Amino acid sequence: MQLSELPIIQAPMAGGPSTPELTAAVARAGGFGFLVAGYRSPAQLLDVIAATRKLSAAPFGVNIFYPSTPADLRPVRAFAQLIQPESDRLGVSVGQPHWDDDAFEEKLEVAETERVGVVSFTFGCPTSHTVDVLHSAGCRVAVTVTSGQEAAFAEDAGADLLVVQGTEAGGHQGSFLELTPNATPLLILLDEVRASCHTPLVGSGGVMTHADAAEVLSKGAFAVQVGTAFLCCPEAGTSATFRRALLERVYPDTVLIRAFTGRYARGLANEFAQKYGDAAPEAYPEIHHLTRPLRAAATAAGDPSIPNLWAGQGWRTVTSESAEAITLRIAADLR
Description:
The chain is of the alpha/beta class.
């Protein structure tokens, strides 16, 4: 399978970093870009699709969050009491925890109507009926998987490609059958999935350099998905607070926790991450809504100690180069 000239796929990064400008820049370099539907309304998704098409005629993808199951709010409220001191310090109230499906059906309809090149799913696997509908609209379907079992599930549903996500990846883990932390390195996971599945594979997690990409491709992936490497490029919508934390190496390492959103995700080990770790219950998006006002206030104030600073394990090599330069550097000699 080939989506673009170069075997480089720009990872969808919800919450700000993914922009039409980033998607178009990666496409100009010969890679394949993604827009995010997560945390956007259907109308906003339509807007960014239109904006991307004004910048580039190249095909691109849209990533959609698969809905979770509503959580018990009692432990969520207990966690709210635990983080109250942070709320008091920032002078904002914690958010109202609630469940929603992020307008899943409406965003599916947008992707179908707009006939985007690839529709990818994170946090779950679409039904075979949904896959058929998207195929009828000319869309390929991708599913993020973190185990051989999830890969087989997605293959049975008719997915056209599997985004195999290793533990090194920044941001949320896309697990959906087992929500325990995925500790399997990407290269090992690729071997596991390739042994039992025949669907084309994309390797995701820790790819920052040409050497990283070459190693992943040698394991049978037809392309690599790159996210963290683009966080500080000028085309990304990453906040100034987040950029500074990355470029100035404010924190020494990354950590895999669910304190920010109620789902396991990898990010820089700032004070909030170190203090609350896994104290939050498994409750997405309830915890996400609970902590969002705190994270937004801290980001606006230039305080990196509170926000989620999603980053993969290779984050120390982040640069402020253009997205085109980053794509070409990673993809050198990989055509």
